[in-house]
Design goal:
283 residues; OB fold (Dihydrolipoamide Acetyltransferase, E2P); Ribonucleotide Reductase Protein R1, domain 1; 22% strand
Protein backbone atom coordinates (compact mmCIF):
# COMPACT_ATOMS: atom_id res chain seq x y z
CA UNK A 1 0.00 0.00 0.00
CA UNK A 2 1.17 3.54 -0.81
CA UNK A 3 1.93 5.44 2.42
CA UNK A 4 3.38 8.65 1.02
CA UNK A 5 3.09 10.09 -2.47
CA UNK A 6 5.45 12.96 -3.06
CA UNK A 7 8.00 12.91 -5.90
CA UNK A 8 8.37 9.15 -5.44
CA UNK A 9 5.75 6.97 -3.69
CA UNK A 10 6.66 5.05 -0.53
CA UNK A 11 5.09 1.58 -0.49
CA UNK A 12 4.69 -0.65 2.59
CA UNK A 13 4.28 -4.43 2.58
CA UNK A 14 2.01 -6.24 5.07
CA UNK A 15 5.10 -7.21 7.10
CA UNK A 16 6.04 -3.55 7.56
CA UNK A 17 8.92 -3.30 5.10
CA UNK A 18 8.93 -0.05 3.13
CA UNK A 19 10.29 0.75 -0.33
CA UNK A 20 10.84 4.01 -2.17
CA UNK A 21 9.42 3.35 -5.62
CA UNK A 22 9.58 4.47 -9.22
CA UNK A 23 6.66 3.98 -11.61
CA UNK A 24 6.89 1.57 -14.49
CA UNK A 25 7.02 3.22 -17.91
CA UNK A 26 3.72 4.84 -18.92
CA UNK A 27 1.87 3.83 -15.74
CA UNK A 28 1.33 7.39 -14.52
CA UNK A 29 -0.32 8.37 -17.83
CA UNK A 30 -2.45 5.22 -17.76
CA UNK A 31 -3.82 5.55 -14.20
CA UNK A 32 -3.44 9.27 -13.54
CA UNK A 33 -1.67 10.05 -10.29
CA UNK A 34 -0.70 7.43 -7.75
CA UNK A 35 -2.61 8.12 -4.55
CA UNK A 36 -1.89 7.47 -0.91
CA UNK A 37 -3.92 4.39 0.00
CA UNK A 38 -3.51 2.73 -3.41
CA UNK A 39 -2.96 -1.01 -3.41
CA UNK A 40 -0.19 -1.64 -5.92
CA UNK A 41 1.82 -4.42 -7.50
CA UNK A 42 5.52 -3.73 -7.49
CA UNK A 43 8.93 -5.33 -7.87
CA UNK A 44 11.84 -4.88 -5.49
CA UNK A 45 14.74 -3.45 -7.48
CA UNK A 46 17.32 -2.80 -4.78
CA UNK A 47 17.95 -2.11 -1.14
CA UNK A 48 14.87 -0.24 0.03
CA UNK A 49 13.75 0.55 -3.51
CA UNK A 50 11.18 -0.81 -5.94
CA UNK A 51 9.22 -0.23 -9.14
CA UNK A 52 5.41 -0.02 -9.24
CA UNK A 53 4.06 -2.11 -12.11
CA UNK A 54 0.30 -1.80 -11.60
CA UNK A 55 -2.36 -0.12 -9.44
CA UNK A 56 -5.23 -2.33 -8.28
CA UNK A 57 -8.83 -1.09 -8.72
CA UNK A 58 -9.84 1.47 -6.09
CA UNK A 59 -12.89 1.02 -3.89
CA UNK A 60 -13.19 4.82 -3.87
CA UNK A 61 -10.99 7.87 -3.89
CA UNK A 62 -11.03 11.50 -2.80
CA UNK A 63 -9.59 14.19 -5.03
CA UNK A 64 -9.10 16.75 -2.29
CA UNK A 65 -7.28 15.43 -0.36
CA UNK A 66 -6.04 12.78 -2.84
CA UNK A 67 -6.50 9.51 -0.92
CA UNK A 68 -7.72 6.13 -2.24
CA UNK A 69 -9.67 3.33 -0.55
CA UNK A 70 -10.94 5.52 2.28
CA UNK A 71 -13.14 4.12 5.06
CA UNK A 72 -14.08 7.31 6.90
CA UNK A 73 -13.21 10.87 7.83
CA UNK A 74 -12.44 12.65 11.08
CA UNK A 75 -13.71 16.23 10.92
CA UNK A 76 -11.58 18.32 13.28
CA UNK A 77 -13.46 21.32 14.63
CA UNK A 78 -12.33 24.04 17.03
CA UNK A 79 -14.91 26.13 18.83
CA UNK A 80 -12.31 28.76 19.79
CA UNK A 81 -8.90 29.92 18.53
CA UNK A 82 -9.97 30.07 15.76
CA UNK A 83 -13.73 29.81 15.89
CA UNK A 84 -14.80 26.98 13.58
CA UNK A 85 -17.39 27.31 10.84
CA UNK A 86 -20.30 24.98 11.64
CA UNK A 87 -21.59 25.20 8.06
CA UNK A 88 -18.30 23.77 6.78
CA UNK A 89 -18.54 21.04 9.42
CA UNK A 90 -21.97 20.06 8.08
CA UNK A 91 -20.74 20.24 4.49
CA UNK A 92 -17.99 17.74 5.29
CA UNK A 93 -20.46 15.42 7.00
CA UNK A 94 -22.75 15.55 3.96
CA UNK A 95 -19.80 14.95 1.64
CA UNK A 96 -18.91 11.86 3.65
CA UNK A 97 -22.45 10.54 3.23
CA UNK A 98 -22.48 11.26 -0.51
CA UNK A 99 -19.23 9.35 -0.99
CA UNK A 100 -20.26 6.42 1.24
CA UNK A 101 -17.83 7.18 4.06
CA UNK A 102 -18.22 6.97 7.81
CA UNK A 103 -17.71 10.24 9.70
CA UNK A 104 -16.75 11.24 13.23
CA UNK A 105 -16.30 14.69 14.77
CA UNK A 106 -13.20 15.62 16.77
CA UNK A 107 -13.52 18.78 18.84
CA UNK A 108 -10.00 20.12 19.41
CA UNK A 109 -8.58 22.56 21.98
CA UNK A 110 -11.24 21.80 24.60
CA UNK A 111 -8.77 22.97 27.26
CA UNK A 112 -9.53 26.53 26.09
CA UNK A 113 -13.27 26.24 26.69
CA UNK A 114 -15.21 27.35 29.71
CA UNK A 115 -18.45 29.04 30.68
CA UNK A 116 -20.62 29.96 27.70
CA UNK A 117 -18.34 28.22 25.18
CA UNK A 118 -18.50 24.96 27.12
CA UNK A 119 -22.30 25.17 27.19
CA UNK A 120 -22.40 25.82 23.45
CA UNK A 121 -20.16 22.82 22.83
CA UNK A 122 -22.39 20.60 24.95
CA UNK A 123 -25.41 21.63 22.85
CA UNK A 124 -23.57 21.02 19.59
CA UNK A 125 -22.23 17.65 20.69
CA UNK A 126 -25.65 16.53 21.93
CA UNK A 127 -27.28 17.43 18.60
CA UNK A 128 -24.72 15.51 16.54
CA UNK A 129 -24.65 12.49 18.83
CA UNK A 130 -28.44 12.22 18.67
CA UNK A 131 -28.28 11.81 14.89
CA UNK A 132 -25.52 9.20 15.05
CA UNK A 133 -22.20 11.01 14.77
CA UNK A 134 -19.54 10.18 17.39
CA UNK A 135 -18.14 13.37 18.94
CA UNK A 136 -14.74 13.33 20.66
CA UNK A 137 -13.48 16.04 23.03
CA UNK A 138 -9.70 16.38 22.69
CA UNK A 139 -6.77 18.56 23.62
CA UNK A 140 -3.33 18.14 22.10
CA UNK A 141 -2.00 20.30 24.95
CA UNK A 142 -3.35 18.33 27.94
CA UNK A 143 -3.88 14.96 26.23
CA UNK A 144 -7.57 14.92 27.11
CA UNK A 145 -9.55 12.40 25.08
CA UNK A 146 -6.64 11.19 22.94
CA UNK A 147 -6.49 7.63 24.27
CA UNK A 148 -10.23 7.07 23.92
CA UNK A 149 -10.16 8.50 20.39
CA UNK A 150 -7.16 6.49 19.25
CA UNK A 151 -8.23 3.16 20.75
CA UNK A 152 -11.83 3.16 19.52
CA UNK A 153 -12.22 0.12 17.21
CA UNK A 154 -11.94 1.04 13.53
CA UNK A 155 -10.43 -0.38 10.38
CA UNK A 156 -9.20 0.84 7.03
CA UNK A 157 -8.06 4.36 6.15
CA UNK A 158 -9.40 7.42 7.97
CA UNK A 159 -8.74 10.94 6.70
CA UNK A 160 -8.02 13.70 9.18
CA UNK A 161 -9.61 16.82 7.74
CA UNK A 162 -10.98 20.19 8.77
CA UNK A 163 -10.31 23.89 8.52
CA UNK A 164 -6.80 25.30 8.66
CA UNK A 165 -5.99 26.22 12.24
CA UNK A 166 -8.36 23.65 13.74
CA UNK A 167 -5.37 21.83 15.17
CA UNK A 168 -5.04 18.82 12.86
CA UNK A 169 -1.24 18.76 12.85
CA UNK A 170 -1.01 19.25 16.63
CA UNK A 171 -3.56 16.48 17.11
CA UNK A 172 -1.65 14.14 14.82
CA UNK A 173 1.61 14.90 16.64
CA UNK A 174 -0.08 14.14 19.96
CA UNK A 175 -1.55 10.88 18.67
CA UNK A 176 1.64 9.78 16.89
CA UNK A 177 4.65 11.48 18.54
CA UNK A 178 7.10 10.11 15.96
CA UNK A 179 5.17 11.54 13.02
CA UNK A 180 7.34 14.11 11.17
CA UNK A 181 4.70 16.85 11.02
CA UNK A 182 5.08 20.58 11.46
CA UNK A 183 2.80 22.79 13.51
CA UNK A 184 2.41 26.54 13.17
CA UNK A 185 0.82 29.30 15.22
CA UNK A 186 -2.25 31.20 14.08
CA UNK A 187 -1.73 34.17 11.81
CA UNK A 188 -2.13 37.72 13.09
CA UNK A 189 -5.79 37.76 11.95
CA UNK A 190 -6.55 34.61 13.93
CA UNK A 191 -6.76 32.15 11.04
CA UNK A 192 -4.84 28.95 10.63
CA UNK A 193 -1.75 28.75 8.48
CA UNK A 194 -1.42 25.61 6.44
CA UNK A 195 1.53 23.43 7.47
CA UNK A 196 0.85 20.06 5.79
CA UNK A 197 2.22 19.88 2.23
CA UNK A 198 1.34 16.34 1.21
CA UNK A 199 -0.82 13.43 2.28
CA UNK A 200 0.70 10.66 4.36
CA UNK A 201 -0.64 7.59 6.19
CA UNK A 202 0.28 6.77 9.78
CA UNK A 203 -0.52 3.50 11.60
CA UNK A 204 -2.81 3.74 14.61
CA UNK A 205 -4.68 1.09 16.65
CA UNK A 206 -5.72 -1.26 13.85
CA UNK A 207 -6.32 1.40 11.20
CA UNK A 208 -4.48 4.06 9.19
CA UNK A 209 -4.70 7.80 9.79
CA UNK A 210 -4.22 10.20 6.87
CA UNK A 211 -3.02 13.72 7.43
CA UNK A 212 -4.02 16.10 4.66
CA UNK A 213 -3.49 19.72 3.58
CA UNK A 214 -5.93 22.18 5.14
CA UNK A 215 -8.67 23.76 3.07
CA UNK A 216 -11.76 25.80 3.78
CA UNK A 217 -14.44 24.46 1.42
CA UNK A 218 -15.79 21.35 -0.22
CA UNK A 219 -17.67 21.75 -3.48
CA UNK A 220 -19.70 19.32 -5.54
CA UNK A 221 -22.81 19.07 -7.67
CA UNK A 222 -25.61 16.58 -7.10
CA UNK A 223 -28.26 15.73 -9.68
CA UNK A 224 -30.73 14.05 -7.30
CA UNK A 225 -32.00 16.36 -4.55
CA UNK A 226 -33.10 13.38 -2.47
CA UNK A 227 -29.44 12.50 -1.92
CA UNK A 228 -29.05 15.69 0.10
CA UNK A 229 -32.21 14.90 2.06
CA UNK A 230 -30.85 11.43 2.88
CA UNK A 231 -27.61 12.96 4.18
CA UNK A 232 -29.50 14.47 7.13
CA UNK A 233 -30.35 11.59 9.51
CA UNK A 234 -32.68 13.72 11.63
CA UNK A 235 -35.18 13.82 8.72
CA UNK A 236 -35.34 10.06 8.14
CA UNK A 237 -38.20 9.03 10.44
CA UNK A 238 -40.33 12.17 10.23
CA UNK A 239 -43.80 11.42 8.77
CA UNK A 240 -44.08 13.97 5.97
CA UNK A 241 -47.20 13.80 3.80
CA UNK A 242 -45.15 13.29 0.63
CA UNK A 243 -42.48 10.60 0.33
CA UNK A 244 -40.28 12.88 -1.79
CA UNK A 245 -40.72 15.91 0.47
CA UNK A 246 -37.81 18.35 0.26
CA UNK A 247 -38.77 19.95 3.59
CA UNK A 248 -39.37 23.39 2.15
CA UNK A 249 -42.86 24.79 1.78
CA UNK A 250 -44.62 21.50 1.00
CA UNK A 251 -47.93 20.95 2.84
CA UNK A 252 -47.75 18.36 5.58
CA UNK A 253 -43.97 18.61 6.05
CA UNK A 254 -43.13 17.17 9.47
CA UNK A 255 -39.70 18.82 9.63
CA UNK A 256 -41.19 22.21 10.50
CA UNK A 257 -43.03 20.73 13.47
CA UNK A 258 -39.81 19.02 14.57
CA UNK A 259 -37.99 22.36 14.29
CA UNK A 260 -40.59 24.05 16.48
CA UNK A 261 -40.25 21.29 19.08
CA UNK A 262 -36.43 21.37 19.06
CA UNK A 263 -36.08 17.86 17.62
CA UNK A 264 -34.22 19.23 14.59
CA UNK A 265 -31.43 21.77 15.18
CA UNK A 266 -32.17 25.11 13.54
CA UNK A 267 -28.61 25.48 12.21
CA UNK A 268 -28.71 22.02 10.64
CA UNK A 269 -31.93 22.85 8.78
CA UNK A 270 -30.49 26.18 7.62
CA UNK A 271 -27.37 24.46 6.31
CA UNK A 272 -29.51 21.82 4.60
CA UNK A 273 -31.47 24.46 2.68
CA UNK A 274 -28.26 26.23 1.65
CA UNK A 275 -26.70 22.96 0.46
CA UNK A 276 -29.71 22.35 -1.77
CA UNK A 277 -29.18 25.75 -3.36
CA UNK A 278 -25.41 25.43 -3.68
CA UNK A 279 -25.02 21.81 -4.74
CA UNK A 280 -28.12 20.72 -6.63
CA UNK A 281 -28.30 21.65 -10.29
CA UNK A 282 -31.27 23.80 -11.31
CA UNK A 283 -32.69 24.03 -7.79
Amino acid sequence: MVLLEANRPTVQLPDGRQYLCYLKGRLRREVGRIMVGDEVEFEITGDGEGRIDAVRPRANHLLRPPVANVTGIFVVFSLLSPRGNIELLDRRLVMAHLTGLAAEIIVSKVDLLGGEAAEQLAQLASAYRQIGYPVWYTSATTGEGLTSLADYPREGIWVLTGESGAGKSSLLKALIPDAPVATQALSRIGRGQQTTRWVRLYPLSGYWLADSPGYTALETKVDDRQRIVEAFPEFHDLPCRFVDCLHGEEPGCAVHQALAEGRVAEWRYRHYRKLLRDWVKSF
